[in-house]
């Protein structure tokens, strides 16, 4: 059992669960506060993208207040790992599920969920906001149009059309897995995240293409890199070996292609 006991605040429609949670920090919200909403009108994704959030998906944000100095990027990888482990509990074994660096979760190579990790400092206290979105009971016609993106969107419902999933059950599964990984991280450090993440990750040992991006915006594009994906280093950066034998690490960017 985890040390942190989640305190869940359930809301109907919000602009973004991240904003709702942030507003509660000056009012004294404690570590483990979770804001969950049935829909979001202004859901936010990584790199300033919009996160389409119709009814049927699971949208929530978790507040952490680690007393140790931690790297928010560690928690982003930890959250992607928890999400992949959660999705695996609901999808038959033969259907491939995994995490695409850093924390997109894919089913059959289509994106089913993602995590936005943000942090702020007030005095000595760091607050970390883990925002997670999972496409669950969303019919294919209502999924975001990712046709211009390298990995298309999917939902539990698209993959398993005869099923309806209890969002509360998926949330509870995620929180249990997440807080256990978080406790382990606080005790053992980043190595525990690195090992757990690499167990869930996709494309290990495969040739990938990475589009470097700015830390804040996906519009700020950098170079395109190709190489064999070797895993993540002790900073959580993606490591590739290029065709000329160089080993390179990238802190930001997006995997745009994988050759099997
Ligand atoms: C991504 O893959 O780009 C991250 C998506 C994160 C979406 C979630 S939904 C709950 C929380 N509130 C938001 O506005 N964003 C996150």
Observed structural traits:
single chain, 260 residues, alpha+beta, BirA Bifunctional Protein, domain 2, SH3 type barrels, seven-stranded mixed sheet, five-stranded antiparallel sheet, globular, binds biotin
Task: Give structural notes.
The chain has 260 residues and is of the alpha+beta class. It has 2 domains: 194 residues, BirA Bifunctional Protein, domain 2 (2-Layer Sandwich); 53 residues, Roll (SH3 type barrels). α2 crosses α4 and α4 packs across α5. The longest helix has 22 residues. The protein is globular and about 55 Å long. It starts with 6 loop residues before the first strand and ends with a strand. It binds biotin.
Query: Which term fits the overall shape?
Result: globular
- What's the architecture of the largest domain in CATH terms? 2-Layer Sandwich
**Overall number of structural domains:** 2
The overall average pLDDT, rounded, is 92
Q: Give the count of helical stretches.
A: 5
Q: How many runs of DSSP E, i.e. beta strands?
A: 12
Q: From the alpha-carbon coordinates, what is the Rg to the nearest angstrom?
A: 18 Å
Main beta-sheet annotation:
7 strands, mixed
The percentage helix is: 10-25%
User: Class of the largest domain in CATH?
Assistant: Alpha Beta
Strand order of the largest sheet: 1-2-3-7-6-5-4
Report the CATH superfamily of the largest domain: Bira Bifunctional Protein, Domain 2
Task: Tell me the fraction of residues in β-strands, as a range.
Answer: 25-35%
Order of helices and strands: EHEEHEEEEHHHEEEEE
Strand pairing plus helix content: what structural class? alpha+beta
Measure the end-to-end span.
39 Å
Uncertain spans: none
CATH topology of the largest domain: BirA Bifunctional Protein, domain 2
What bound compounds does this protein have? Answer: biotin
């Amino acid at each position: 059992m985890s040390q942190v006991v989640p305190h869940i605040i359930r809301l109907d429609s919000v602009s973004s669960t991240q904003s709702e949670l942030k507003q509660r920090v000056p009012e004294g919200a404690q570590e483990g506060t979770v804001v969950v909403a049935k829909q979001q009108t202004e859901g936010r994704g990584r790199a300033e993208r919009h996160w389409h959030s119709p009814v049927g998906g699971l949208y929530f944000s978790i507040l952490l207040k680690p007393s140790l100095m931690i790297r928010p990027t560690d928690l982003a990888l930890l959250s992607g790992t928890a999400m992949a482990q959660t999705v695996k509990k609901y999808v038959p074994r033969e259907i491939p599920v995994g995490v695409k660096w850093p924390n997109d979760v894919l089913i059959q190579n289509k994106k089913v969920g993602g995590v936005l990790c943000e942090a702020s400092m007030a005095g000595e206290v760091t607050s970390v906001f883990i925002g997670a979105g999972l496409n669950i009971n969303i019919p294919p016609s209502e999924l975001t149009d990712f046709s211009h993106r390298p990995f298309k969107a999917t939902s539990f419902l698209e993959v398993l059309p005869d099923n309806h999933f209890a969002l509360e059950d998926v949330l509870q599964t995620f929180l249990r897995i997440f807080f256990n990984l978080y406790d382990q991280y606080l005790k053992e450090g980043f190595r525990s995240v690195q090992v757990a993440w690499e167990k869930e990750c996709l494309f290990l040992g495969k040739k990938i293409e990475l589009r470097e991006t700015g830390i804040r915006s996906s519009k700020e594009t950098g170079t395109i890199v190709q190489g064999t994906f070797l895993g993540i280093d002790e900073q959580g950066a993606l490591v590739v070996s290029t065709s000329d034998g160089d080993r390179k690490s990238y802190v930001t960017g997006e995997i745009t292609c994988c050759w099997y």
